[in-house]
Amino acid sequence: MTEALLFLHILAGTIALAAAGFAVGSVKGGALHRRSGNVYTLAMLVTGASALVLAIVNPSVFLFAVGVFSLHLVFTGWRAAMMRDGRPRMADHAGGGIMALAGLGMIGWGVWGMISDVGAEAIIILVFGSIGLTLALSDWRDWALGPITGKARIVRHLGRMLGGTIATITAAGVVNLRFLPDLVVWLGPTVLITPLIFWWSARVMRGSVSLSGGTQTPRRSG
Questions:
Q1: Whose CA is closest to 23, among 34, 9, 13?
Q2: Cα–Cα distance between 103 and 66 in angstroms, integer?
Q3: Is the pLDDT of residue 9 over 80?
Q4: Closest Cα to residue 24, out of 11, 40, 10?
């Protein structure tokens, strides 16, 4: 049972990485981008869900928390693409609430781990918990300002999907790059890809790129 679940987890993660490559390299809003994005989302949901089950079968608070973090990134990125009117629904608020609670838990565990000197794992989970909590709080702040539409919606979609890709690459690195220091493997993809997210977001805000291939008007500022 555990072996089959682990195989499913690895297979889905591999498919997600391949689909992410096609989505990033294809024309935004085109058929290939949409199809590869759908495959990526489904594969990441399977990857995240199987990670949660594995964390329960072989108790690991750390793996469970990171699974919640990854699922939140993919879910919010997918919702940004689907929710063209930019208005959050109950599912969006529920997702934010789960991530906020998980983020607080990860931060608390990380602080406890640092005090107890459990090693690099405490720092890693503290970083991911802080990012997750910040994302949840920033979502509520942005929704309070009004619908997230136009370029802001696209930036949200791209940022969250690339964030999910970071999580996938990190997981693959943890399994296959054990000869490297823990902090390098766990935080390396974040350090390397986050600047790309900022660059891409700035490019979208300056240009007229849209998920549908047309021109979008910026969201209102408040």
A1: 34
A2: 10
A3: yes
A4: 40
> Which tokens is 109 given?
């565990």
What is the mean pLDDT of the segment spanning 105-128?
83
Residue in this structure with the two tokens 């983020």, named with its chain if needed: 103
Per-residue confidence (pLDDT) for residue 220, from 0 to 100: 45
What residue segments make up the domains of the chain, in order of their start? 2-206
For residue 222, with 0-12 CB atoms within 10 Å meaning exposed, 13-18 middle and 19 or more buried, which class applies?
A: exposed
User: Structure pTM?
Assistant: 0.78
- The amino acid sitting at 178 is R
If we measure between CA atoms, which residue out of 83, 96, 1, 13 comes closest to residue 49?
Answer: 13
User: What is the pLDDT, as a whole number, of residue 214?
Assistant: 41
Classified as helix, coil or strand, 214 is: coil
Distance from C-alpha of 123 to C-alpha of 154, rounded to nearest angstrom: 31
DSSP assignment letter at 118: -
d(C-alpha 217, C-alpha 22), whole Å: 27
Please report the pLDDT score of residue 64 as a whole number: 78
Q: What is the torsional sign of CA 127, 133, 139, 145?
A: negative
Neighbours of 81 (CB within 10 A): 20
